Queue: 3 jobs
Job 1
Amino acid sequence: MRHLLGLPALPWHGRQVSTEASARVPGPLPAVPGSEPLKARGNLFEIATRQIEKAMALIGLDPDVAAILAQPKNEIIVNFPVRLENGKLEIFKGYRVQHNNILGPYKGGIRYHPEANLDEMKALASWMTYKSALHEIPFGGAKGGVKFDPRQCSKLELERITRRFTSALGFNIGPELDIPAPDVNTNSQTMVWMMDTYMNLVGPLERNNVRGVVTGKSVSSGGSHGRAEATGRGVAHCISEWAHDKNFSLDGALVIIQGFGNVGSYTARLLSHKGAIVVGVGDVGGYIMNPEGINPHKLGEHVHETGSVAGYRGATRITRDEFFALDAHVFVPAALELELGVAEAKALRVKVVVEGANGPTYPEAEAILLERGIDVLPDILCNSGGVIVSYYEWLQNKRGDQWELPDVLERLERRMRQTYASVRQYATTHKTDWRTASYAIGLERIEHCYKERGIFP
Ligand code: NAD
C-alpha cells in the first residue's frame, strides 16, 4: 500500500516486518536536551472524566446513563510469561479495558509502551465509546496494551509477546465481542499475529469466520485498502474543512507536527499534497525545523532507516521549547497524550490545533488556546479515520468482500465531512467549544439507545 501511494515505510513499522526474525529494532535514542516530554502528567482518566462531565452537564444527561458511563464495563489485566531470546523468562502485564458496548462490539487499539497503565487504558477506552457514537459507527469503546518497551525487543520477541498476550485475552475478544486495532508501537504485523493466534484458539471449523477479530491487518491477510493511512487522511480532511470554513488557503500554509509515526507521517504527506509546508517535526528522539519546508517523504525514509526524525540532514535540530514557539498556521499533535500543557499553549503561534493523538491537550491548556483565539479540533472528531476504515474492514471480513481503494477513500471522506458539519452546527447552536460539542453528540446517541433499550433484567 505504501508503495502504491509512493509513501516510504514507517519507522519501526517497516523494521518489524523484516525477514530477519531476530533483527533488533534500535535501542533507546540518546536523550536530547529540551526534547523531554512533559514531566508531570496528570491522571488521564480523571482528565477524560472532567472533559466528558462538561458535555454531560450541557445536555443534562440522565444520571443513570452518566453512572453507567462513569466506569468501564470490564477491566481485564493479564500477566503472562514469555521466553526471551537470551533464554530468560519474563512476565509481562497486559490490559484490555472494555468501556461500553451499547452501540456495538467493543472496539479500540492495542499499544505497546513502557508506561502503559490501567488509568490510561480507561481514558482511551472511554474516548473510543464517544468517538464511535459521534461518527455513528456501530461499535463501542475499548483499549488495550502491554507494558514494555518494544524498542528493546527483537522481532521474534515481539511476535511471542503478541501471541501470548492474545492467548491470555482468550475469548474476551472476538469479532462480535471486542475488536482490537493498531495503536502506538503496534501495526499491521501485530494485528496479523493476533488474528492468527485467535484463529488457532477457535479451531479449524471456525478459523475463517474470525478474521474480523482485529482490524488494521495487512491487505493480504484480510485488511482493507486505505486502512494504514486512514487516521492521517481523516486528520487532513478535518484541516481542509477548517480551512474552507475560515477561507484560508492550505497552499503555502505552515504546519508543525509532533510525532512522525503512523498518524503524523501520513498527515504530513497528505497535507504536503495540498500545498502545505511542514516547517517543524518532533518525535521521541528530538525536534527539527526548516522554514523552507521539510520533505515528508524524504523524512519518512530517514525515520525508516534511523528510527527518529533526529539527525535528518534537510533540517536544523531545535529544542522542544523552540518547536512549540515556531511560526506556523497548523499544529498537529500526533505523538502521545498530555503533551500540550499550559506552557505549550502559551508558546504556540498557530491558528489551529488539530488533535491527531488521543488526549494530547490538558483542559487548562485548551482554555488558554481558546482564549488566545486558537481553534482546537478535538481528537474524537479528527483522529477517527482509523476506526471508520476499521469498521469498513470489519464489514468486508463479515461479507468475505474486498472493496477497492477509491470506494474506501470516498466513504471515509464523506463520513468525516458529515461529522465535521454536525459538530460545527452543534457548537454554533449551543455556543460551546468543539470538544464539548463532539462529546455531546455522542452522548445524546448513547442516551437515546439506553432509554429505548432499558437495563437488563
Ligand atoms: P506510532 O507508534 O506510529 O507513532 C508515535 C510517534 O510519537 C512516533 O513518532 C514517536 O517517536 C512519537 N513519540 C513518542 N513519544 C514521544 C514523546 N515523548 N515526545 C515526542 N514524540 C513522541 O503511533 P500512532 O499510531 O501514530 O499513534 C499516535 C497517536 O495517535 C496516539 O495518541 C494514538 O493513540 C493516536 N491514534 C492512532 C490511530 C492509528 O490508527 N494508529 C488512530 C487514532 C488515534
Note: The two ends are 48 Å apart (CA to CA).
Job 2
Amino acid sequence: MNKDLQSIVLTEEQIREKVTAAAAWLDERYKGKKPLAVSVLKGSVMFFCDLVRAMNTPVQIDFMTVSSYGASSESSGMPKIVMDLAASVKGRDVLLVEDIVDSGYTLQRMRDLLIGRGAQSFTVVALFDKPARRQVDVKADYACFEIGDEFIVGYGLDYAQQYRNLPYVGILKREIYEK
Ligand code: IMP
Ligand code: MG
C-alpha cells in the first residue's frame, strides 16, 4: 500500500466486482439503445475505460474535463468546464460516468448543461457516493460504493494531481491534506 494512505477502501479485485455489476445494470437499462457514454475527466478515466469494456451495449464514447478543486480537498462550488464534448448530445441517451459524487455541484452542473443541450435521457453512474457531504439535491442513478466523509485517492482519484495511477482506492492520511 502507498505510504500516504491510511487504509484501503477498494482493492483491484473489489473494483472489478463493482465494475462488472454496474455494467450488467447498464446493459439491462440500455437494451436496444446506443448511448453516448461521457467520461468526466480526469477522475473517472480508469473507471470509465473498465466500465465501457465490461458492457455489452454498443456505446459511443466522449470526454469532458471539469475542474472544481484546484489543489484542495474542498469543492469550489463552481465547477469549470475545461474541455467540452466533441459530440452533440441532442436526442442522445447520455450515460455520465463520474468517479465520485461529493457536494453534488459537478453533477448538477453536468445535468443542467446536457439536458439543456437536448439529451433525450440522462443516466449517472458513479464509482463512489459521499452522501453526507451533499450540498445540492442530486443523486447518481447507480453508485457502486458509498463512503463517509473521508478523502480518497487512487484508480483515477487524485489529491493535487497525485495518486491517480494507483490501481486500488485508499483513504489519504489527513496529515497530507491538512498541512
Ligand atoms: P462535487 O462537485 O463536490 O460533487 O465533486 C465532484 C468531484 O470532486 C469528483 O468528481 C472528484 O473529482 C472530486 N472529489 C470529491 N471527493 C473526492 C475525494 O474524496 N477524492 C478525490 N477527489 C474527490
Ligand atoms: Mg470528477
Note: The pocket of inosinic acid (ligand 1) is lined by residues 43, 68-69, 75, 79, 98-107, 151-153, 157-158 (CB under 6 Å).
Job 3
Amino acid sequence: MFSVEEALERVLRRVPANATERVPLALAQGRVLAETIVAGCDLPPWAGSAMDGFAVRSADVPGDLTVIETVAAGKVPSRVVGPGEATRIMTGAPVPAGADAVVMVEDTSSVGDRVTVRVSVGPGQHVRPAGSEIAAGRTVLTAGVVLGFGALGVLAALGRATVVVYVRPRVGLLSTGDEVVEPGLPLGPGQIWSSNLHALAGLCRDAGAEPVYLGNVADDPAALGAAFSRAMRCDIVVSTGGVSVGDFDHVKGVLTDMGVSIDFWRVAMKPGKPLAYGFIGERPIFGLPGNPVSCMVNFLQFVRPVIRTMLGDPKPFLPVVSAVLAEPWTRRPGRPELVRVALSFGEGGRVVASVAGVQGSAHLLGMADASGFLLVAGDTTQLSGEVPVQVFDWSWTAGAGPSYRWAGGAG
Ligand code: AMP
Ligand code: MG
C-alpha cells in the first residue's frame, strides 16, 4: 500500500511534455502562458495628459495665459508652449513640447483664447511620462502564468493580438460496467445512470483539460479492448470502474494484454483505495474506481496534478488552507481520510469548514455541497478548531450579497 504522497510522487515522475499553440487574445483567458512577454515599447509610448485641462509651463502659474491650440486624444500637438502660453488638452492626448504640467479644467476659467489658472502646480503634475507604466524591455509576464483579465489587458496594451499558450491535454473518458447507462437512456433492471463520466468531464474542464467522451463500455474484455484502442488518440486516458478484484473487473487484464505496462496500486486514503496507473507509449492511463466519490477524489489527487503539470503550471497541486471546523468531528482510527467539507467565511473573514453530508464513497450529494477536503491523518480520532483543508472549488468566495458595504463610503 502506498501513501498518497508516495503515489503522487510516482505519478509525477513521468509526465509527458505538452505542446504549445498560438491563440488569439479573445480565446486566451484561463490558458497557461508558454512564452515570456517583454514590453516591445514604452507604455504610454509618449508623455500624455491624465486630465482634461491646460498644458502649461509650471513656472507660469497661477496666472493669465494665451491658449495657442487644442489637442484632443488621438491628435498630436503642432505648437511648442512658450512663456505665457497654454495648450487646451484632453485626457489621453500627448503633452506638447515646452509644457511640463497639466492644470485641471476645474482650476481654470477661460474666455476666448485667454485662460486664467487659479492654482500653482509642480512640474510633472497630471502628466504620465513615456514608459511610466511599463518601460520598453521590461519582462511583464512569464511562462506558467494563468492568463486572467488583468494579464489580457496588459497583452492588449502592448499591442499583442495573439499569445503562445500550452495546448490543453485531451483526456479520454471511459466508464465501465454492465450496470451503467448514459443519462437520457432508459434504465433496465439492475442498472444505474452513469454519474462518473459527467463528473469527470467537469473535473477535466476545471483542471484546464479538454474532456473527450468515449462512453460506457460493458464488462467484456473485447469491448473494453476496443474502447481503450479508441482512447489512444487522447493525451491522457481515464477509465472508471473495473479496477477492483471482482469477477468482472477486467481493466487490468485488458490493458496488460494490449501491452500497456500498468501498476495496480492500493493507496492509503479513504475514499478511493484502488488505482490502476500505467503508460502506453508516453500517454498516462488511469484506471479509477467506479464508486462516484472515490472516482472524483482519485482524479483530484492524481489526475489533476498531471494535467496541470502538462499545462505548464509550476504549481500543479490543490492549495491547502487553514480553516476552523464548525463542529467537532470524531471517527474511528483507520486510513488517512479526505472528509468532504463545505466552506464559508466566518467572523473576521476566517474560513469555516462544515462536514458535508454522509461520507460514504457512493454518496454523491456531499460532493455537490463540498468545496474542499478536510485532511485527516490515519491515527486521528477527533478534530476541532483549526484544521487543514484542501480546496478544489472557490465559488463560495465569490460575491458578497446585498449587505455589502464598503468602509470607504462616498469619500
Ligand atoms: P467497480 O469499481 O466497477 O467495482 O464499481 C464500484 C461501484 O461503482 C459499483 O456500485 C458501480 O455500480 C458503481 N459505478 C461504476 N461505474 C459507475 C459510473 N460510471 N457511474 C456511477 N456509478 C458507477
Ligand atoms: Mg464495475
Note: The helical segments are 4-12, 149-157, 196-207, 221-231, 251-257, 292-310, 364-369.
